Amino acid sequence: MSNLVYQSLIVGGGFTGLFTALHLSHQHYPRSVILIDKEERFCFKPLLYEYVSGEMDAEQVWPRFEELLKGSGIIFVRDAVEAIDLKQREVKLVSGNSYNYSNLVLGLGSVTGYFGVEGAQENALPLRTGEDAIAIDKHLRECLQTAIQIQDPEQRKKLLTVAIIGGGPSGVEIAATLADLLPNWYQGMGGNPQEIRIVIINHGQEILQGDINSHLQSTAEQELQKRAVPVEIILGAEATAINKESVQYKRDDKTETLPTATVIWTTGTNTHPLIKKLEIPDEHRDKHGRLVVTPTLQLPDFPEVFAGGDCAAVEDKDFPPTAQVAYQQGSAIAHNLIALAFGHELKPVEVNIRGTLLKLGIENSVANLFNRYEVTGEIGHLIRQGTYLELLPTPIHDLKITTEWLKDEIFTHHLYPIQAGDVIKWVGGAVLAAVVARKLIKAFSEGEKEQKSQLPLLQNS
Predict the structure, then answer these.
(1) What is the DSSP annotation of 180-205?
(2) Where would you tag: which of 75, 224, 290, 298 has the fewest CB atoms within 10 A of its CB?
(3) CA torsion 183→184→190→192, rounded to 10°?
(4) Do 191 and 148 contact (CB within 8 A), yes or no?
(5) Residue range 2-29, pLDDT digits in tens
(6) What is the sign of the dihedral through the CA atoms of 424, 426, 432 and 435?
(7) Would you say the pTM of this structure is higher than 0.70?
(8) Are 121 and 268 in contact (CB under 8 A)?
(9) Contact assessment for residue 98 and residue 109, using Cβ atoms and an 8 Å cutoff
């Protein structure tokens, strides 16, 4: 490249990309930064279930990039990337525009994988974006409204059955949410809530198998049975075909059919097509085709390029594909970009998994802190909400959403017409709950660090 352009491009506005940009802004990065994403809005994926259920609204879960980046100095370009030329240091957009860079950050994430299942892409509903959540909401309401008017019990049963493909965390969380939500909706229309049927079809013999949340399997199974309608779980079942009226699956060498008008696809992802097209040797890709990056999150063949999140695998590390990992990788990439700009030493990424959080129904979650402290029910819900609220982009957005969330917790869900003095007590209690949730996590985090420093020999025992 003959004329080096001193600007950094960030391709992909997910957790890694957005938080890299925000950290660069907060730390006064000396070069211009351009964030490119084809979507208008950032999607806070761990809270999509709250968006589906109405517990949180679009501004909270699905805010516009322009709002999040206002006053940051980050340039946002809404466009789709057509090609990335690593040798020429150029990113070409579908619009015909192109950008050169001195540094590039790849935060493209992954795409939904259907693995050749017949009719899956055409007939199943994914849940990865705000648009997906809206589509699911609209579809489910139409099914319920149609069912309430139908006399044929088989047709009504099909309309009131929701099949969820995949028993990983996404499948469990949406199943638990809908098992509380849909009976309430249907009863409000005059229907019998017990006619609602939520079914998880899982290929493996266990839900949450091989996931960071696997230790929560027993808790999740118990909570799924406590929902407004119990969630059915079909294990060892491989989905083979999906159409508008049923799911076919194979179990014990037999093909079975589940009549349903709603199939939600939560299983599996594929490497992003743009990542697959990069001229990177196979030895610098993992078995899924993701980019293998150095501990400093750089491409071995192109050290001016950083990558994180679902499109990258760190050498000799096995980080789970979660928001808290991508968030911390964004911070690490920002630190190293600043180090490069000032000629300082780069640092390897350090990811601190503070625990796991799983939504298990309306206002019901399990929070497992450092695999040692498990809290379920409404307190678990408060801890989960408080933890994710801390990750919401920019302090202004965080403060605004925290205020709205506390207001909802206090006035919508807990308060009845009571005396002013009692209102103050409720407000104080709700604020205290949010503060305690955050303090608990920070305290456990500090305690964990202290234990590691005092007992180094026990870590390897």
Answers:
(1) HHHHHHHHHTT--GGG-EEEEE-SSS
(2) 75
(3) 30
(4) yes
(5) 355 689 999 999 999 999 999 999 998 9
(6) negative
(7) yes
(8) no
(9) no
